[in-house]
Amino acid sequence: MKIKFMGAARTVTGSCYVVETDDHRFAVDCGMHQGNAEIDKRNWDMAAYQPDKIEFVIVTHAHIDHSGLLPRLVKKGFNGPIYTTPPTKELLEILLLDSAHIQEQEMQWRNRKKARHGEKNCEPLYTQRDAEATFPHLQAVPYDKSFSPAGGLTVTFRDAGHILGASMVELWVEEDGKEAKLVFSGDIGRPSQLLMEDPTIQKTADFLFMESTYANRDHKNETDSLDELAAAIAFSYKKREKVIIPAFALERTQEMIYSLYLLSKEGRLPADMPVFVDSPLAIKATGIFRRFQDYLDKETKALLTSGENPLDLPQLHFTETTQDSMAINELSGPAVVISASGMADAGRIKHHLRHNLWRPGASIVFVGFQAQGTTGRKIIEGAEKVRIFQEEIAVKAKIFTINGFSAHAGQSQLLDWLSHFQNPDMQVFLVHGEQSAQQVFADLIRERFKFQVLIPDYLEEVTLKPGYALLRVAHPEKAAPRIDWGYILADLEAKLTQLQSRRPQLEAKAWVEQTDLRDRIMELNRGLMETISEI
Ligand SMILES: [Zn+2]
Ligand SMILES: [Zn+2]
Protein backbone atom coordinates (compact mmCIF):
# COMPACT_ATOMS: atom_id res chain seq x y z
CA MET A 1 0.00 0.00 0.00
CA LYS A 2 1.03 3.59 -0.52
CA ILE A 3 0.61 6.57 1.78
CA LYS A 4 0.89 10.16 0.63
CA PHE A 5 1.40 12.93 3.17
CA MET A 6 -0.93 15.74 2.06
CA GLY A 7 -0.20 17.97 5.07
CA ALA A 8 1.02 18.26 8.66
CA ALA A 9 4.39 17.15 7.31
CA ARG A 10 7.19 19.11 9.03
CA THR A 11 4.49 21.54 10.14
CA VAL A 12 1.43 21.31 12.40
CA THR A 13 -1.55 22.03 10.15
CA GLY A 14 -3.31 20.38 7.21
CA SER A 15 -3.36 16.82 8.58
CA CYS A 16 -4.26 14.41 5.79
CA TYR A 17 -2.99 11.08 4.54
CA VAL A 18 -4.17 9.57 1.30
CA VAL A 19 -3.91 5.78 1.52
CA GLU A 20 -3.89 3.57 -1.57
CA THR A 21 -4.17 -0.18 -1.22
CA ASP A 22 -4.45 -2.67 -4.10
CA ASP A 23 -8.21 -2.16 -4.22
CA HIS A 24 -9.08 1.08 -2.44
CA ARG A 25 -8.15 4.74 -2.15
CA PHE A 26 -9.20 6.72 0.94
CA ALA A 27 -8.10 9.50 3.30
CA VAL A 28 -7.42 9.80 7.00
CA ASP A 29 -8.26 13.39 8.09
CA CYS A 30 -8.70 16.32 5.73
CA GLY A 31 -7.40 19.34 7.60
CA MET A 32 -7.02 22.93 6.61
CA HIS A 33 -3.52 24.27 6.04
CA GLN A 34 -2.93 27.33 8.20
CA GLY A 35 0.05 29.55 8.84
CA ASN A 36 1.82 31.75 6.32
CA ALA A 37 0.62 32.69 2.85
CA GLU A 38 2.75 29.96 1.26
CA ILE A 39 1.12 27.22 3.37
CA ASP A 40 -2.39 28.71 2.89
CA LYS A 41 -2.00 28.20 -0.89
CA ARG A 42 -2.19 24.43 -0.34
CA ASN A 43 -5.90 24.79 0.50
CA TRP A 44 -6.68 25.90 -3.04
CA ASP A 45 -5.00 22.98 -4.79
CA MET A 46 -7.59 20.22 -4.40
CA ALA A 47 -6.44 18.48 -7.58
CA ALA A 48 -3.57 17.04 -5.56
CA TYR A 49 -6.15 15.14 -3.45
CA GLN A 50 -8.12 13.81 -6.47
CA PRO A 51 -11.38 14.16 -4.48
CA ASP A 52 -13.54 12.12 -6.86
CA LYS A 53 -11.19 9.16 -6.47
CA ILE A 54 -11.36 9.11 -2.67
CA GLU A 55 -13.83 6.41 -1.58
CA PHE A 56 -14.23 7.46 2.07
CA VAL A 57 -12.62 9.61 4.74
CA ILE A 58 -11.83 8.75 8.35
CA VAL A 59 -11.68 11.81 10.64
CA THR A 60 -9.75 11.64 13.94
CA HIS A 61 -11.31 14.75 15.52
CA ALA A 62 -13.15 18.00 14.97
CA HIS A 63 -10.25 20.49 15.05
CA ILE A 64 -10.09 22.44 11.81
CA ASP A 65 -6.48 21.39 11.15
CA HIS A 66 -7.87 17.83 10.80
CA SER A 67 -11.27 18.50 9.24
CA GLY A 68 -11.36 22.01 7.75
CA LEU A 69 -11.04 20.96 4.09
CA LEU A 70 -13.93 18.46 4.14
CA PRO A 71 -16.44 20.95 2.63
CA ARG A 72 -13.97 21.76 -0.13
CA LEU A 73 -13.36 18.06 -0.77
CA VAL A 74 -17.12 17.54 -1.17
CA LYS A 75 -17.40 20.66 -3.33
CA LYS A 76 -14.69 19.29 -5.62
CA GLY A 77 -16.28 15.90 -6.21
CA PHE A 78 -15.86 13.65 -3.16
CA ASN A 79 -19.02 11.65 -2.70
CA GLY A 80 -18.42 8.97 -0.08
CA PRO A 81 -18.99 8.49 3.64
CA ILE A 82 -16.99 10.39 6.27
CA TYR A 83 -16.51 8.18 9.35
CA THR A 84 -15.98 9.70 12.76
CA THR A 85 -17.16 9.39 16.40
CA PRO A 86 -20.63 10.66 17.47
CA PRO A 87 -19.36 13.75 19.38
CA THR A 88 -16.99 14.64 16.53
CA LYS A 89 -19.92 14.46 14.09
CA GLU A 90 -21.86 17.03 16.13
CA LEU A 91 -18.84 19.24 16.75
CA LEU A 92 -18.03 19.19 13.03
CA GLU A 93 -21.49 20.52 12.27
CA ILE A 94 -20.84 23.67 14.28
CA LEU A 95 -17.12 24.07 13.57
CA LEU A 96 -17.35 23.64 9.78
CA LEU A 97 -20.16 26.20 9.62
CA ASP A 98 -18.09 28.59 11.69
CA SER A 99 -15.06 27.97 9.48
CA ALA A 100 -17.20 28.60 6.36
CA HIS A 101 -18.44 31.85 7.86
CA ILE A 102 -14.83 32.96 8.43
CA GLN A 103 -13.94 32.00 4.82
CA GLU A 104 -16.87 34.03 3.50
CA GLN A 105 -16.01 37.07 5.60
CA GLU A 106 -12.37 36.94 4.65
CA MET A 107 -13.19 36.73 0.94
CA GLN A 108 -15.67 39.59 1.23
CA TRP A 109 -12.92 41.73 2.70
CA ARG A 110 -10.44 40.66 -0.01
CA ASN A 111 -12.99 41.24 -2.76
CA ARG A 112 -13.63 44.79 -1.55
CA LYS A 113 -9.89 45.37 -1.82
CA LYS A 114 -9.80 43.75 -5.26
CA ALA A 115 -12.70 45.93 -6.43
CA ARG A 116 -10.76 49.06 -5.42
CA HIS A 117 -7.87 47.83 -7.58
CA GLY A 118 -10.20 47.05 -10.49
CA GLU A 119 -9.62 43.28 -10.14
CA LYS A 120 -12.13 40.43 -10.48
CA ASN A 121 -13.93 38.96 -7.47
CA CYS A 122 -12.91 35.56 -6.07
CA GLU A 123 -14.97 32.78 -4.48
CA PRO A 124 -14.29 31.80 -0.87
CA LEU A 125 -12.58 28.47 -0.15
CA TYR A 126 -16.05 27.23 0.73
CA THR A 127 -19.38 28.68 1.85
CA GLN A 128 -21.82 27.81 4.63
CA ARG A 129 -23.90 26.02 2.00
CA ASP A 130 -20.85 23.87 1.10
CA ALA A 131 -20.38 23.06 4.79
CA GLU A 132 -24.03 22.01 5.05
CA ALA A 133 -23.62 19.79 1.98
CA THR A 134 -20.91 17.91 3.90
CA PHE A 135 -23.13 16.94 6.84
CA PRO A 136 -25.12 14.14 5.11
CA HIS A 137 -21.79 12.37 4.44
CA LEU A 138 -20.95 12.14 8.17
CA GLN A 139 -21.37 8.69 9.72
CA ALA A 140 -20.85 8.17 13.44
CA VAL A 141 -19.14 5.10 14.91
CA PRO A 142 -18.41 4.97 18.67
CA TYR A 143 -15.04 4.19 20.26
CA ASP A 144 -13.87 0.55 20.37
CA LYS A 145 -16.37 -0.74 17.82
CA SER A 146 -14.62 -2.19 14.76
CA PHE A 147 -16.12 -1.56 11.35
CA SER A 148 -15.19 -2.30 7.78
CA PRO A 149 -15.46 0.71 5.45
CA ALA A 150 -14.43 -1.46 2.47
CA GLY A 151 -13.28 -5.01 1.72
CA GLY A 152 -9.99 -5.98 3.36
CA LEU A 153 -10.03 -2.96 5.69
CA THR A 154 -10.97 -2.82 9.38
CA VAL A 155 -11.06 0.38 11.43
CA THR A 156 -11.40 0.98 15.19
CA PHE A 157 -11.55 4.37 16.90
CA ARG A 158 -9.81 4.57 20.30
CA ASP A 159 -10.00 7.46 22.74
CA ALA A 160 -7.09 9.84 22.08
CA GLY A 161 -7.80 11.89 25.23
CA HIS A 162 -7.32 15.13 23.30
CA ILE A 163 -10.72 16.82 22.88
CA LEU A 164 -14.29 15.54 23.10
CA GLY A 165 -14.67 12.58 20.70
CA ALA A 166 -11.05 12.69 19.52
CA SER A 167 -9.74 9.35 18.36
CA MET A 168 -6.67 7.44 17.41
CA VAL A 169 -7.35 5.28 14.40
CA GLU A 170 -6.37 1.64 14.24
CA LEU A 171 -6.45 0.38 10.68
CA TRP A 172 -5.89 -3.21 9.57
CA VAL A 173 -5.16 -3.66 5.90
CA GLU A 174 -5.20 -7.03 4.24
CA GLU A 175 -3.13 -7.33 1.09
CA ASP A 176 -1.80 -10.48 -0.63
CA GLY A 177 -3.18 -12.59 2.21
CA LYS A 178 -1.11 -10.67 4.77
CA GLU A 179 -2.39 -8.21 7.37
CA ALA A 180 -0.68 -4.99 8.42
CA LYS A 181 -1.70 -2.79 11.34
CA LEU A 182 -1.44 0.96 11.00
CA VAL A 183 -2.02 3.36 13.90
CA PHE A 184 -2.77 7.01 13.25
CA SER A 185 -2.33 8.72 16.62
CA GLY A 186 -4.39 11.80 15.71
CA ASP A 187 -3.61 14.44 18.35
CA ILE A 188 -2.53 12.79 21.60
CA GLY A 189 -4.05 14.34 24.72
CA ARG A 190 -2.28 15.48 27.88
CA PRO A 191 -2.85 12.61 30.34
CA SER A 192 -4.22 14.64 33.27
CA GLN A 193 -6.65 16.83 31.33
CA LEU A 194 -9.68 17.64 33.46
CA LEU A 195 -12.47 16.46 31.17
CA MET A 196 -10.85 13.88 28.95
CA GLU A 197 -9.78 10.31 29.60
CA ASP A 198 -6.05 9.57 29.29
CA PRO A 199 -4.93 8.60 25.77
CA THR A 200 -5.46 4.90 25.00
CA ILE A 201 -2.35 2.79 25.38
CA GLN A 202 -1.41 1.06 22.15
CA LYS A 203 0.82 -1.99 22.19
CA THR A 204 1.40 -3.01 18.61
CA ALA A 205 1.58 -1.48 15.16
CA ASP A 206 3.55 -2.21 12.03
CA PHE A 207 3.39 1.45 11.08
CA LEU A 208 2.74 4.33 13.47
CA PHE A 209 1.88 7.85 12.34
CA MET A 210 2.50 9.96 15.40
CA GLU A 211 1.89 13.61 16.22
CA SER A 212 4.79 15.61 17.64
CA THR A 213 3.43 19.09 18.44
CA TYR A 214 5.23 19.36 21.79
CA ALA A 215 7.96 16.84 20.97
CA ASN A 216 10.70 19.09 22.31
CA ARG A 217 9.23 20.31 25.62
CA ASP A 218 7.12 19.52 28.63
CA HIS A 219 4.21 21.51 30.06
CA LYS A 220 4.06 23.09 33.49
CA ASN A 221 2.27 20.99 36.07
CA GLU A 222 -1.49 21.32 36.56
CA THR A 223 -1.46 22.52 40.19
CA ASP A 224 0.85 25.43 39.35
CA SER A 225 -1.44 26.39 36.48
CA LEU A 226 -4.50 26.42 38.71
CA ASP A 227 -2.59 28.50 41.29
CA GLU A 228 -1.66 31.02 38.62
CA LEU A 229 -5.28 31.31 37.55
CA ALA A 230 -6.25 31.85 41.19
CA ALA A 231 -3.56 34.55 41.47
CA ALA A 232 -5.01 36.42 38.49
CA ILE A 233 -8.49 36.24 40.02
CA ALA A 234 -7.29 37.43 43.44
CA PHE A 235 -5.35 40.32 41.87
CA SER A 236 -8.20 41.71 39.75
CA TYR A 237 -10.88 41.02 42.38
CA LYS A 238 -8.97 43.20 44.84
CA LYS A 239 -8.63 45.94 42.22
CA ARG A 240 -12.33 45.60 41.29
CA GLU A 241 -11.40 44.88 37.66
CA LYS A 242 -11.93 42.05 35.19
CA VAL A 243 -10.01 38.87 34.35
CA ILE A 244 -10.06 38.37 30.60
CA ILE A 245 -9.30 34.88 29.28
CA PRO A 246 -8.89 34.47 25.51
CA ALA A 247 -9.71 30.79 24.94
CA PHE A 248 -10.43 28.47 22.04
CA ALA A 249 -14.16 27.79 21.90
CA LEU A 250 -13.75 24.03 21.87
CA GLU A 251 -12.18 22.21 24.83
CA ARG A 252 -10.15 25.06 26.36
CA THR A 253 -13.27 27.04 27.27
CA GLN A 254 -14.83 23.96 28.91
CA GLU A 255 -11.57 23.18 30.72
CA MET A 256 -11.53 26.77 32.02
CA ILE A 257 -15.11 26.42 33.31
CA TYR A 258 -14.01 23.22 35.07
CA SER A 259 -10.94 24.98 36.52
CA LEU A 260 -13.13 27.81 37.83
CA TYR A 261 -15.47 25.21 39.32
CA LEU A 262 -12.49 23.69 41.19
CA LEU A 263 -11.36 27.13 42.40
CA SER A 264 -14.88 27.95 43.51
CA LYS A 265 -15.01 24.69 45.55
CA GLU A 266 -11.78 25.72 47.26
CA GLY A 267 -13.09 29.21 47.96
CA ARG A 268 -10.62 30.77 45.53
CA LEU A 269 -13.30 32.17 43.20
CA PRO A 270 -15.37 34.78 45.07
CA ALA A 271 -19.10 34.02 44.90
CA ASP A 272 -19.86 37.62 43.88
CA MET A 273 -17.52 37.49 40.86
CA PRO A 274 -19.64 36.64 37.81
CA VAL A 275 -18.17 34.42 35.07
CA PHE A 276 -19.16 35.07 31.45
CA VAL A 277 -18.67 32.69 28.55
CA ASP A 278 -18.88 35.14 25.70
CA SER A 279 -18.61 33.24 22.42
CA PRO A 280 -21.59 31.76 20.53
CA LEU A 281 -19.41 28.90 19.29
CA ALA A 282 -18.13 28.11 22.81
CA ILE A 283 -21.72 28.11 24.09
CA LYS A 284 -22.77 25.57 21.42
CA ALA A 285 -19.66 23.44 22.09
CA THR A 286 -20.34 23.44 25.85
CA GLY A 287 -23.87 22.16 25.10
CA ILE A 288 -22.37 19.22 23.15
CA PHE A 289 -19.97 18.46 26.05
CA ARG A 290 -22.91 18.37 28.43
CA ARG A 291 -24.81 15.99 26.13
CA PHE A 292 -21.96 13.52 25.52
CA GLN A 293 -21.20 12.71 29.15
CA ASP A 294 -20.18 9.17 28.21
CA TYR A 295 -17.18 10.58 26.41
CA LEU A 296 -15.85 12.44 29.48
CA ASP A 297 -13.31 10.90 31.84
CA LYS A 298 -14.08 8.66 34.84
CA GLU A 299 -13.56 11.43 37.41
CA THR A 300 -15.94 13.81 35.65
CA LYS A 301 -18.55 11.07 35.21
CA ALA A 302 -18.33 10.23 38.93
CA LEU A 303 -18.86 13.90 39.79
CA LEU A 304 -21.87 14.07 37.50
CA THR A 305 -23.37 10.93 39.03
CA SER A 306 -22.96 12.43 42.49
CA GLY A 307 -25.06 15.39 41.40
CA GLU A 308 -22.18 17.84 40.88
CA ASN A 309 -21.69 19.57 37.54
CA PRO A 310 -18.16 20.76 36.85
CA LEU A 311 -19.39 22.41 33.67
CA ASP A 312 -21.59 24.73 35.69
CA LEU A 313 -21.18 27.38 38.37
CA PRO A 314 -23.81 29.40 40.23
CA GLN A 315 -22.34 32.61 38.80
CA LEU A 316 -21.88 31.33 35.22
CA HIS A 317 -23.56 33.29 32.41
CA PHE A 318 -23.61 32.46 28.72
CA THR A 319 -23.90 35.59 26.61
CA GLU A 320 -25.34 34.62 23.26
CA THR A 321 -26.43 37.92 21.74
CA THR A 322 -24.30 40.91 20.79
CA GLN A 323 -26.26 43.08 23.24
CA ASP A 324 -25.51 40.72 26.12
CA SER A 325 -21.87 40.68 25.11
CA MET A 326 -21.69 44.49 25.00
CA ALA A 327 -23.41 44.74 28.38
CA ILE A 328 -20.43 42.97 30.02
CA ASN A 329 -18.29 46.00 29.32
CA GLU A 330 -20.78 48.35 30.91
CA LEU A 331 -20.78 46.27 34.07
CA SER A 332 -18.66 47.76 36.82
CA GLY A 333 -16.81 45.59 39.32
CA PRO A 334 -14.84 42.37 39.03
CA ALA A 335 -15.76 39.55 36.64
CA VAL A 336 -14.17 36.73 34.69
CA VAL A 337 -14.71 36.81 30.92
CA ILE A 338 -13.85 33.77 28.77
CA SER A 339 -14.07 34.63 25.11
CA ALA A 340 -12.73 33.58 21.70
CA SER A 341 -10.61 33.62 19.64
CA GLY A 342 -7.90 32.01 21.70
CA MET A 343 -5.16 34.06 20.02
CA ALA A 344 -7.04 37.35 20.50
CA ASP A 345 -7.09 38.43 16.88
CA ALA A 346 -10.70 37.73 15.95
CA GLY A 347 -14.11 37.51 17.58
CA ARG A 348 -15.58 39.11 20.67
CA ILE A 349 -12.36 38.89 22.69
CA LYS A 350 -11.11 41.95 20.78
CA HIS A 351 -13.84 44.10 22.37
CA HIS A 352 -12.93 42.87 25.84
CA LEU A 353 -9.27 43.61 25.26
CA ARG A 354 -10.08 47.10 24.02
CA HIS A 355 -12.02 47.76 27.21
CA ASN A 356 -9.57 46.19 29.64
CA LEU A 357 -6.03 45.98 28.30
CA TRP A 358 -5.24 49.56 29.37
CA ARG A 359 -6.55 49.14 32.94
CA PRO A 360 -3.72 48.51 35.44
CA GLY A 361 -5.93 46.37 37.72
CA ALA A 362 -7.23 44.05 34.99
CA SER A 363 -5.69 40.64 34.21
CA ILE A 364 -5.30 39.06 30.79
CA VAL A 365 -4.79 35.33 31.14
CA PHE A 366 -3.43 33.39 28.15
CA VAL A 367 -4.12 29.68 28.43
CA GLY A 368 -3.27 28.47 24.93
CA PHE A 369 -0.65 28.55 22.22
CA GLN A 370 -0.12 32.02 20.68
CA ALA A 371 1.12 31.84 17.09
CA GLN A 372 3.62 34.31 15.69
CA GLY A 373 2.05 37.51 14.40
CA THR A 374 -1.15 37.29 16.48
CA THR A 375 -2.26 39.97 18.96
CA GLY A 376 -1.92 37.41 21.75
CA ARG A 377 1.71 36.73 20.86
CA LYS A 378 2.50 40.46 20.80
CA ILE A 379 1.00 40.92 24.26
CA ILE A 380 2.83 37.98 25.85
CA GLU A 381 6.07 39.15 24.29
CA GLY A 382 5.74 42.42 26.18
CA ALA A 383 4.38 44.90 23.60
CA GLU A 384 3.61 48.26 25.25
CA LYS A 385 0.78 48.93 22.81
CA VAL A 386 -1.23 46.76 20.45
CA ARG A 387 -3.53 47.71 17.60
CA ILE A 388 -7.16 46.64 18.07
CA PHE A 389 -9.93 47.97 15.79
CA GLN A 390 -7.65 50.59 14.24
CA GLU A 391 -6.74 51.95 17.67
CA GLU A 392 -3.47 51.76 19.61
CA ILE A 393 -4.31 50.33 23.03
CA ALA A 394 -1.78 50.58 25.88
CA VAL A 395 -0.95 47.33 27.64
CA LYS A 396 -1.23 48.16 31.37
CA ALA A 397 -3.15 45.11 32.59
CA LYS A 398 -1.28 42.30 34.34
CA ILE A 399 -0.42 39.57 31.84
CA PHE A 400 -0.47 35.89 32.83
CA THR A 401 0.75 33.14 30.50
CA ILE A 402 -0.32 29.75 31.82
CA ASN A 403 0.90 26.83 29.74
CA GLY A 404 -0.34 23.88 31.80
CA PHE A 405 -3.76 23.66 30.11
CA SER A 406 -2.59 22.22 26.79
CA ALA A 407 -4.73 19.55 25.09
CA HIS A 408 -1.55 17.95 23.70
CA ALA A 409 0.84 15.62 25.49
CA GLY A 410 4.26 17.11 26.24
CA GLN A 411 7.55 15.43 25.34
CA SER A 412 7.84 13.01 28.28
CA GLN A 413 4.15 12.11 28.00
CA LEU A 414 4.62 11.31 24.30
CA LEU A 415 7.64 9.15 25.12
CA ASP A 416 5.67 7.41 27.83
CA TRP A 417 2.84 6.63 25.39
CA LEU A 418 5.39 5.28 22.92
CA SER A 419 7.06 3.10 25.56
CA HIS A 420 4.10 0.67 25.54
CA PHE A 421 4.68 -0.54 21.99
CA GLN A 422 6.13 -4.01 22.08
CA ASN A 423 7.17 -4.75 18.52
CA PRO A 424 10.74 -3.63 17.86
CA ASP A 425 10.26 -3.64 14.07
CA MET A 426 7.75 -0.81 14.18
CA GLN A 427 8.26 2.01 11.71
CA VAL A 428 7.41 5.45 13.16
CA PHE A 429 6.46 8.44 11.02
CA LEU A 430 6.55 11.75 12.87
CA VAL A 431 3.90 14.19 11.71
CA HIS A 432 2.09 17.28 13.05
CA GLY A 433 5.11 19.11 14.44
CA GLU A 434 7.79 21.65 13.62
CA GLN A 435 10.79 20.10 11.95
CA SER A 436 13.32 21.21 14.57
CA ALA A 437 11.21 19.66 17.37
CA GLN A 438 10.74 16.48 15.33
CA GLN A 439 14.46 16.04 14.82
CA VAL A 440 15.10 16.23 18.56
CA PHE A 441 12.30 13.72 19.17
CA ALA A 442 13.37 11.33 16.40
CA ASP A 443 16.85 11.07 17.99
CA LEU A 444 15.29 10.38 21.38
CA ILE A 445 13.08 7.61 19.96
CA ARG A 446 15.96 5.94 18.11
CA GLU A 447 18.13 6.08 21.19
CA ARG A 448 15.52 4.88 23.66
CA PHE A 449 13.34 2.43 21.74
CA LYS A 450 15.42 1.55 18.65
CA PHE A 451 12.38 2.05 16.38
CA GLN A 452 12.94 3.27 12.86
CA VAL A 453 11.85 6.90 12.58
CA LEU A 454 11.07 8.97 9.56
CA ILE A 455 10.06 12.63 9.24
CA PRO A 456 8.10 12.73 5.97
CA ASP A 457 7.93 15.85 3.83
CA TYR A 458 4.88 17.50 2.30
CA LEU A 459 3.53 15.42 -0.64
CA GLU A 460 6.04 12.66 -0.01
CA GLU A 461 4.77 9.18 -0.77
CA VAL A 462 5.88 5.96 0.91
CA THR A 463 5.21 2.34 -0.01
CA LEU A 464 4.57 0.15 3.01
CA LYS A 465 4.93 -3.60 3.18
CA PRO A 466 5.39 -5.22 6.56
CA GLY A 467 8.78 -6.89 6.81
CA TYR A 468 10.18 -5.02 3.80
CA ALA A 469 12.26 -1.84 3.60
CA LEU A 470 10.35 1.34 2.90
CA LEU A 471 10.23 2.80 -0.54
CA ARG A 472 10.18 6.61 -0.44
CA VAL A 473 9.25 8.86 -3.29
CA ALA A 474 9.62 12.56 -2.72
CA HIS A 475 7.35 14.89 -4.62
CA PRO A 476 9.41 16.27 -7.54
CA GLU A 477 8.98 19.90 -6.47
CA LYS A 478 9.88 19.02 -2.93
CA ALA A 479 12.85 16.77 -3.66
CA ALA A 480 15.39 19.54 -3.07
CA PRO A 481 16.61 19.70 0.53
CA ARG A 482 14.60 22.17 2.52
CA ILE A 483 16.18 24.98 4.50
CA ASP A 484 14.57 25.57 7.86
CA TRP A 485 15.00 29.34 8.07
CA GLY A 486 13.17 29.64 11.38
CA TYR A 487 15.62 27.21 12.94
CA ILE A 488 18.70 28.94 11.49
CA LEU A 489 17.46 32.32 12.64
CA ALA A 490 16.75 31.09 16.17
CA ASP A 491 20.18 29.45 16.29
CA LEU A 492 21.91 32.65 15.14
CA GLU A 493 20.00 34.75 17.63
CA ALA A 494 20.94 32.38 20.44
CA LYS A 495 24.63 32.52 19.46
CA LEU A 496 24.52 36.30 19.27
CA THR A 497 22.92 36.64 22.71
CA GLN A 498 25.46 34.22 24.13
CA LEU A 499 28.34 36.23 22.68
CA GLN A 500 26.91 39.51 23.89
CA SER A 501 26.39 38.16 27.39
CA ARG A 502 30.06 37.14 27.56
CA ARG A 503 31.18 40.61 26.60
CA PRO A 504 31.59 42.05 30.13
CA GLN A 505 33.94 39.25 31.22
CA LEU A 506 35.93 39.53 28.08
CA GLU A 507 36.35 43.28 28.35
CA ALA A 508 38.99 42.75 31.00
CA LYS A 509 41.04 40.72 28.55
CA ALA A 510 43.38 41.80 25.78
CA TRP A 511 42.34 44.30 23.14
CA VAL A 512 43.07 41.81 20.38
CA GLU A 513 40.59 39.38 21.85
CA GLN A 514 37.98 42.11 22.02
CA THR A 515 38.49 43.00 18.41
CA ASP A 516 38.01 39.34 17.53
CA LEU A 517 34.84 39.25 19.52
CA ARG A 518 33.56 42.40 17.87
CA ASP A 519 34.38 40.97 14.47
CA ARG A 520 32.53 37.76 15.27
CA ILE A 521 29.52 39.67 16.50
CA MET A 522 29.54 41.75 13.35
CA GLU A 523 29.93 38.65 11.24
CA LEU A 524 27.03 36.99 12.98
CA ASN A 525 25.00 40.16 12.70
CA ARG A 526 25.63 40.22 8.97
CA GLY A 527 24.56 36.57 8.75
CA LEU A 528 21.47 37.43 10.70
CA MET A 529 20.56 40.34 8.44
CA GLU A 530 21.09 38.18 5.33
CA THR A 531 18.91 35.45 6.77
CA ILE A 532 16.19 37.96 7.64
CA SER A 533 16.27 39.48 4.18
CA GLU A 534 16.08 36.04 2.56
CA ILE A 535 13.12 35.10 4.72
ZN1 LIG B 1 -6.42 18.72 17.72
ZN1 LIG C 1 -4.03 18.96 15.33
Summarize the structure in short.
By secondary structure, this protein is of the alpha/beta class. The chain contains 16 helices and 22 strands. Helix content is 37%, strand content 18%.
Labels describing this entry:
535 residues, alpha/beta, eight-stranded mixed beta sheet, six-stranded mixed beta sheet, 22 strands, binds zinc ion
Describe this structure in words.
The structure is a single chain. The chain has helices at 37-40, 64-67, 70-75, 86-116, 128-134, 222-238, 252-265, 280-291, 298-305, 322-330, 349-356, 375-380, 411-418, 435-449, 485-507, 511-534, and strands at residues 2-7, 16-20, 25-28, 57-58, 82-84, 138-140, 153-159, 167-175, 178-184, 207-211, 242-246, 275-278, 316-318, 335-339, 363-366, 385-388, 391-394, 398-401, 427-431, 452-454, 461-463, 471-473. By secondary structure, it is an alpha/beta fold. The protein contains 16 helices and 22 strands. Helix 4 (86-116) packs antiparallel against helix 5 (128-134), helix 4 (86-116) runs antiparallel to helix 8 (280-291) and helix 15 (485-507) runs antiparallel to helix 16 (511-534). Helix content is 37%, strand content 18%. The strands form 4 sheets. It has an 8-stranded mixed β-sheet. The chain has a 6-stranded mixed β-sheet with strand order 7-8-9-10-19-20, covered by helices on one side. The structure holds zinc ion (ZN) (2 copies). One zinc ion is lined by residues 15, 63, 65-66, 187, 432. One zinc ion binds at residues 15, 63, 65-66, 187, 432.
